[in-house]
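Entry for the shared binder. Reason: the reviewer on the internal report wants the predicted structure included alongside the sequence.
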Amino acid sequence: MTVEEHSHHSFLSDFILGSQDGLVNVLGILLGLTAAATGLRLILIATFAALGAESISMGAVAYTSTRARRQLYLSESQREQREMRELPDQERAEVASILTGWGLSGAEQDDLLDRICRHPRVMLEFMMAFELGLSPVAEDAPRKSGLLVGTATVVGSLVPVLPFLAFPADLRVAILISVVLSAAALFAIGVYEAKTTIGSLWKSGLRMAVIGLVAGLAGFLVGHFLGATPAL
């Protein structure tokens, strides 16, 4: 897999991670606070505080985790190159073992084995991909991943809170619209995932919506029961 191919998959996972996380967390906070009969001002303060902290946190996690994957790939690549120089017979045997696992044998295997081992770069990328299961990570990937996840988290977080800004005088209407809007956004994210990868558009969309709404319901129940509990 090339860096370009892998970057497309990373974009999908980063977008889904950030947008879903931001939307679900903020929806849970909003429903929990409204269930606890909290005033609108406090609801918005808590929500935007969570939005800011969550977006920075998610972006930082995406940056550090992607950087760690790049560092791991570079480290393993250096180790593999050293073994190719110092233990060529052993490395050739490892390539042959992989080809055997693919069902190749005899002259067919020997021909492909010679072709791979004749070119150090080909052999290195072959071993990185099929022995270690690692994909290359571009130098700017950590920065891009952090920015994308952080931005997607902000965008996702704004979806459930917009109705509270549009209907500040009627929290019941705001809650209803927020839930419906959030469900629609989660469904759209699931559809995008299915279109980009594979699977049923409806199943993927419904699965994403159900997961998000269940998390929001958990926030509502916590707020309801805590709000109904007398202060100690």
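Summary line for the report: The helical segments are 3-35, 40-86, 88-101, 106-117, 120-130, 141-166, 171-196, 201-228.
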